[in-house]
Amino acid sequence: MPVKPIENGYIVSVYHHRKRYQERVLSPHSETFRKRLEEECILISFIMRTEDQELASRLPNSKILKRFFAAKTPQFTIDDYATLWFKRNQVNWSKSTEIGYRKKYNGKLASAFGKMQITKFKNTDFSDWASTQSLSGKTLNEYRLILTLIFKEAFFDGVVATNVMDRVRRFKQTRKEPDPFTPTEIEKVLKALPSPYNWYYTLAFYTGCRPGELIALRRQDVDIKNNRIFIRVNFVAGKETQPKTAASLRTIPLLPAPALALEQLFASEFTSDYRCFINPNTGAEFTADGLRRHVWEPTLKQLKIRYRPQYQCRHTFASMMLTKGMDPSKLARVMGHSDWGMIRHVYARWIDEFNPSSEI
What we know:
The chain is mainly α. The protein has 3 domains: about 5-70, no CATH class; about 80-165, DNA polymerase, domain 1 (Orthogonal Bundle); about 185-355, hpI Integrase, Chain A (Orthogonal Bundle). The protein has helices spanning about 30-50, 55, 65-70, 80-90, 95-115, 125-130, 135-155, 185-190, 195-205, 210-215, 255-265, 290-305, 310-325, 330-335, 340-345, 350-355; strands spanning about 5, 10-15, 20-25, 220-225, 230, 235, 240, 250-255. The strands form 3 sheets. A 3-stranded antiparallel β-sheet has the order 1-2-3, with helices on one face. It has a 3-stranded antiparallel β-sheet with strand order 4-5-8. Helix 4 (about 80-90) packs antiparallel against helix 5 (about 95-115). The protein is elongated and about 100 Å long. The N and C termini lie far apart (about 80 Å). The model is unreliable at about 355-360 (pLDDT under 50).
């Protein structure tokens, strides 16, 4: 009997492939309601045989069908969907973005959540994990973004009913102000460096190039006659790639110091027909990490100059140009930003120093 009366309702039973599925339905006893349940049993049995989810939507409250289709749904782990997300989307990312995402996912997220079934993950799982990490708000937001995008992919595929990461609030970020080098420090560093490193860091201080852009600089991208360089490629993880954004493709006018540095470089043995800067010991391209460990850190330590990352050379150029009165929108173009919002946000103090009358 598919419908059996019990106290305060009925037990509904449906058999499929010799397995019994049961559901308790609370209702006063009546012949009309019992016949309706029997008709539903016939329909449920047909849906299970055909696995027709569209027809199943007509019985949204059927616990039997919910259990049946839940068992049919593949149980993806977060690792499974992370792999799928990377595969589908990496073609749309710059190389540096892909490397950043993979480094963060494989570094912490995979070990914390990778083996969890994606349908069982809760927003509180991430919040509880974040509370145990000694990470900045900026870094936690980067981890949050990666999981949000993975769950968004699963949501669009119908694997999860909602993107639970949307319920995780952004963490408060404290932006560190740029820490530029002083003119005296720049002079000391450049005088202490042997060739070709003095020429490399002259361009780092006086062009605003990102390290990867400067390492990747090609001979064909230098126009000495008109005192300008063209940023067309980047260097990421040992490979020449396209710059991260369209705005990064740009022309940088050369100040006298970097123009002279390039002339001296091209007259030396420390260059190649293709790449401007090469490692004098290997003939290969520089690497940012190699420069940091073998050139940058030892030089600052020798000169007893407070350590700052090489990226502060770029900040030094920006603050120096703003203090000299360069228009922020022009500086944004030179540095490869799509608009001057980033300049205004990061370098506001130097804009105000040039224009003391500006009000907060």
